[in-house]
Design goal:
The protein is mainly alpha-helical. It is built from 16 helices and no strands.
Length: 425
Amino acid sequence: MKPLRQISIFHSFQNRNYRIFFAGQSVSQIGTWMQRTAISWLVYSQTHSTFMLGLTIFASLFPSFLLSIFGGVVSDRFNRHKVLFITQGASMIQSLILTILILTDHYSVWMVIILTTFLGIINAFDVPARQPLVNDLVKNKEELPNAIALNSAMVNLARLIGPALSGITLEFWGAGICFLINTLSFGAVLISLFLLKLPEYKPKTKQKKVVTELVEGFNHLKNHPTLRTVLLLLTGMSLFVIPYDTLIPVFAKITFHGNASTFGLISSFIGLGAICSTLFLASLKPGTDLKYILLINIFILGVGLICFSHITYFPIAMIFVAMAGFGGMTQTTICITLIQVHSDAVMRGRIISFLAMAIFGMLPLGSLLVGAASQKIGPANTILAQGLIALLIGLIFFNFLRADRLKKKDKKVLEMVEDQLIETL
């Protein structure tokens, strides 16, 4: 009989540091999703432009694409714990400025976009430090996939709760209160970082040049086919498929004839599908073929988007948008897990920065592409096309994602043949 820790969905919570970090991040992520939802609604309400929606998301993510590689070097070179104190504190200041501008009604859409750009710069250094830190919070490295899955579940629980709260708050009190709540939520994550008890940080005795460390990271990536292929897959999905949520405010207002609460509700159903996916991943047994599950969920995402695109009956549409949330988050979480597992510890920050570049570089470009395409062919046809592209990407990477499963099958067949030969002899 297997020990409880191997079959419990929450066995990573046995680690004190991970519990504290998880709690602080949970509160902060709800505030973050409230702010994201409020910004999208604010920009669309002021401009009624899908292109401006895409531009806002571009502004929030593209700086991370440009600077994440340097964030990876910082993560590998300095104390990640202290780096997070700085980035989370800076994010709190950004949210506070946004709150003051909105509450005093001294803002323009371009001010919001500039502040969003500033947050993108902060995230370029925050993500490469925060993701590898999870590795340092669990003692038993076999628990890492479970910890990453629970971390994603926490983000997606916030994605479920945050937009719903944001929709209600926008309806009754306005965007400024959403930004104020996000500002206050950073207190939780700063307190959790303060309470962590980590081993004493030992700086590198000899610092290499930044260029040298970047070259080392590229070489590590070049010499590991799994890392390369996973990043290529994630790049394609982030450019052509995942930015479908850029058009959700349009569906809320035009397709479903709703308001801010409708927008928040659709976003929450995406979050519901996403949290179900991460709880599913957290429940998997050690040794499960993650690549094969990734393949299945790419097709789930594609089918969900295709069906959602042209359905105008709200309850049915929410089933398919939840499917899209399930498939989309599963593929992102599995890609993060595969990269963490297959990369060397000394290179992990830089490899995570490549992951961040794949996401933060392609998502903003994809958002611009989606915004422009929707003005030409309409929002419904744009999301239909994204679903078809997801199926195409699944077919392109079909052999890679099934390779491990076929190897195991061949090994099993070989063992059966050997057993039969032994019995015959």
